[in-house]
Every structure is written in structure tokens, then in C-alpha cells.
């Protein structure tokens, strides 16, 4: 059972799997995610690799300032990503494999990315990373999310209204997750308010996960993707 708590602002630093001596200029998104090529696959190729695409609805982004985080263990001080997009509403879909949410995708425009950029928050500099290091967000409640910056404050207000013996997952979210086998929900913190939050399982659960901007030839974002580490080499089949 997931429990809600709100620690201080943590996990905005670097995650490194092994010590490396590579120069910062050598950093490449493909070295921390082998799955960026999944967007070049046809429907038949996705099916062959046992990857399912699940649309979950449209996310409202009235400011275009996007927060990607564990929605239940971060507070209103969690920063929005440095890149902003045009305000509007955009479709969210999940890549699922091995019975897990393998990646979450927020799509702004159609097209295949030609370049990838690690999603960062203010104060993070990709040029300081060694080739196995990455920026991302920590997950402690088994969930990831996309939301507008204003949605975080709205949900925090609703959390503060709960009684001492209540928590946001069990007493608010659980009933909304249930129809989707607890895999995802487009949550409205306030009924009747269009502002919503896309929440979804985070792959194998708690961990540290990077997000990437998929860019077109002009450097404009086509999509934002969080990789939960279920796929390997854009393949959802279990290793033998």
C-alpha cells in the first residue's frame, strides 16, 4: 500500500552508477537510456517487441511550466523544468511492457525526434555530467507524474485539508486509480476545475528516473519522455 509523505527537497542532484573518467563534453543521452529509438518503431515493431501504447488523456498546461516528479513525495518547492512549452492541453500516453509502465510520454506535436536533450531544472548543467551520470527525479511512492506548475500548489492545498489520520493516496487517489488497475489516472485536485495531473506507475517502483526532451531539427520539443527502466534497447521482452 502506498503511503503519502512529504520530505524536503531532495534528489535534484546527480545519480551515477559507476565511476567514470569521461569528459563532460562526451555526455550523450543514449548512454543513460537505450530506449530513445522506440519512437522510430512501427506499430508492428512495437507489437513484436511486446510494447503496448496506452493513451490516458490530455494534460492541461495553462502556464507551459512542466513539473515531472513523484507527485506524493514532493511539495510546492519542487521546481518546474527549465524548458517551457506553449500553454495548452496535450496528450499523455504510456509505453507498457512486462506488465509495467515502461515510459510516460507527453506529446506536443507529431513527428520523430531527431535529437534528445536531458530534461533539467534550473541550476542543473548537463555539461558537468560524466557519461554515466544523469539528472532526474527520485520516486519513493511508486509513482511518476507530469503536471503544470500551478497543479502542484492546488494539490498541496487539498492535501493540507486532510485529517491527521488520512493520506492522499488511500483516501483520495486509490478510488481513481482502481478502474485502470492502479496503473494510471488523470487526477483533478479540485472537482470541476480542468487543471489535472497525469499520474502513473513508475516502472519497477521506487528509484531514480530521467526525463528527456525529444526535439525536432529546429530544436523545438516534440515530446517529453520519462524512462522507467523497464525497456532495454527499446525492447519490452524479458531478457533470456
Structure in a nutshell:
With 240 residues, this protein is mostly beta strands. 12% of the residues lie in helices and 31% in strands.
Note the main attributes of this structure.
single chain; 240 residues; mainly beta; six-stranded antiparallel β-sheet; four-stranded antiparallel β-sheet; 3 helices; 14 strands; 12% helix; globular
Task: Summarize the helices and strands and which ones pair or pack.
Blueprint: E1 14-16, H1 43-48, E2 52-61, E3 66-68, E4 88-97, E5 100-107, E6 115-118, E7 133-135, E8 137-139, E9 143-148, H2 149-160, H3 168-177, E10 184-187, E11 197-201, E12 207-209, E13 211-215, E14 221-227
Antiparallel strand pairs: 1-7, 2-4, 3-9, 4-5, 5-14, 6-13, 8-12, 9-11, 10-11, 13-14
- In spatial order, strands of the major sheet run 2-4-5-14-13-6
Structural domains: how many: 1
Helix content: 10-25%
The N- to C-terminal Cα distance equals 31 Å
- Shape descriptor: globular
What's the number of extended β-strand segments?
14
Question: What series of H and E elements makes up the topology?
Answer: EHEEEEEEEEHHEEEEE
Q: What's the gyration radius in Å? A: 17 Å
Structural class: mainly beta
| Average pLDDT rating | 89
Point out poorly predicted stretches: 1-25
The proportion of residues in beta strands is: 25-35%
Separate helix tally: 3
Largest sheet: 6 strands, antiparallel
